[in-house]
Amino acid sequence: MSLSVPLSRTGGDTSPPVRAQVPPVVRKARPAWMEDDAPSPDKVLFAWTQEERGKRFPGTIPEAPPPGWATWYAGALAAVGSDEARLRAAWLAWLEDAWGQARQPVCAARAFIGPEVWRRHVPGQGSQAAPPEALALPATEAGTTWGQVLAALRTDGKRYVAEQLARLTPTLEGDMLFLEAPDRFAAALVQDDYLPLIESALARLDVSARAVVIHAADTH
Q: How many Cα neighbours within 13 Å face the side chain of 16?
């Protein structure tokens, strides 16, 4: 008696069918600064700032926390009496700031944490702080020169710029006008964003100063 062996559908090939390969699932990596299982409060706040920034300016690329963000958060939180809602309100106000919107990238966190920027937008400060323009300039030739530069900027329609620069401390050495910022970050901000405007205004004035040097309080 003979046994009959059924043929496979492929004409005699009895090997198991080859399964189609499924490409592996590639999971989108989270930003390195958010890899903690339980992110710290400063990282939670930063993630929120980027969400709000994306809503206000669709298409913007989310940032990574700038250097010093955690330190800034601790100090800023203490300054507002541990009321983080005031920091969040300050960020929302920053997103509406014309100067911040003119920066590239728009409304960057690096600029926001500058002491002269974020404090400006904190609600509930009342009238305790004097407006920048009301700050007295030194009764010196340097103070007079610097006052004329600020006045020229206001005349040029740069009132906000003049407000920000009014806190710099001027000194004069020969034909060099030295402008002292409170810290390195503020000095870099003035150097990068405002120096051409200052130099342009100074060049139009009949004063002895012909050049400008920006420096931080701890470097001159």
A: 3
